[in-house]
Specification:
7-stranded parallel sheet, two-stranded parallel sheet
Length: 327
């Protein structure tokens, strides 16, 4: 019987993971405890909720009672007032309870390629799990480095069982479509209208144009993505997998998204023009070979599927677009 504590259980990744386990016939022996701070998940007979801050040791200790597995999805973006409470204190209290617990078996940390600087720095070779940490400016990337290093040191200090699944930008529904918007409804960054100016952005909206991101030398940028469904599949596979023990895995699409290929595909299939925009960013290629080799994991999403699902997705009134954190 697995008793899984999920932090960030109402976020994009955590909510998909919880839903997958509760709906799967293969996981009917799993119970879930969600550690929630503000939002609450929908009730379910195999779902229990502990409400409170992950930075509170007593809250974490209560949430950890009888837990066999921890899936740590909770995170903050560029929020200096709270990011260290969640990323450092929160993970520290979790790990402390893990090492002292008699029921504990494994912790799975959802990391991010922000710990490697993703497209902020030039990478001459594919980025593997051996690449040294290199946070880009800001507190979010620093927090992802600190999380990975803390988990690694608990492996060293206490031989703790766990793994890190390092994901790039996580997509679902129509996220990718809105990542290419010149409007105020843009998802994530860059904010294209801030780069080109309001007047030109409004003209591009009228012509249904999309940005074609270029690096500092004028080449189309390649940037790494993963669909949330592919990430969840890797999370399920990693649970109790013997080859996942004390490992870090890059969990991403087989190839990064090439903005030139995006522009070409949208022009071919939807007659959408593209606007070349030079940026200070660089191409990266996150290598997922290790996850394929050790976990037997395979991503199902490629460029075509990511675009087609994003552009065909129809939101209902009950499914508004939310951005839970800045950045």
């Amino acid at each position: 019987m697995k008793h899984i504590l999920v932090t960030g259980a109402t976020g994009k990744v955590g909510s998909h993971f919880v839903r997958h386990l509760l709906q799967s016939e293969n996981h009917r022996n799993v119970t879930i405890r969600a550690l929630c701070h503000t939002r609450l998940p929908e009730p379910h007979e195999r779902l229990e909720v502990v409400k409170g801050s992950i930075s509170d040791r007593d809250v974490v200790h209560t949430a950890m009672k009888g837990i066999t597995h921890v899936v740590h999805c909770a995170t903050c973006k560029e929020t200096p007032d709270s990011v260290m409470d969640v990323a450092v204190k929160g993970l520290f209290w979790l790990l402390e309870d893990c090492r002292l617990s008699e029921s504990f078996k494994q912790i799975v940390l959802i990391g991010g390629d922000a710990a490697l600087g993703h497209f902020f720095y030039p990478h001459a070779l594919p980025v593997t799990e051996q690449k040294r940490h290199s946070a880009y400016p800001g507190c979010y990337a620093l927090s992802k480095v600190l999380e990975e290093v803390m988990l690694e040191q608990y492996f060293v200090q206490y031989n703790l069982s766990g793994c890190c699944l390092r994901a790039p930008w996580i997509m679902e529904k129509d996220d990718f479509k809105y990542s290419l918007s010149f409007g105020e409804d843009v998802f994530g960054g860059p904010r294209w209208r801030d780069i080109v100016g309001t007047q030109r952005a409004e003209e591009y909206i009228k012509t249904n144009s999309v940005p074609l991101m270029l690096d500092q030398e004028g080449n189309a940028i390649k940037r790494n993505f993963v669909h949330v469904n592919d990430l969840v599949e890797s999370m399920v596979l990693a649970l109790d997998h013997p080859k996942a023990r004390q490992q870090t895995f890059n969990i991403c699409m087989d190839e990064p998204i090439d903005y030139q290929h995006v522009a070409d595909y949208l022009h071919l299939t939807r007659a959408m023009p593209s606007i070349e925009i030079k940026t200070p960013f660089w191409s990266t290629w996150l290598d997922n070979s290790k996850a394929k080799f050790l976990l037997g994991w395979r991503p199902r999403y490629d460029l075509k599927r990511l675009i087609e699902e994003a552009w065909s997705y129809q939101r209902s009134e009950a499914d508004p677009r939310h951005v839970w954190y800045p950045g």
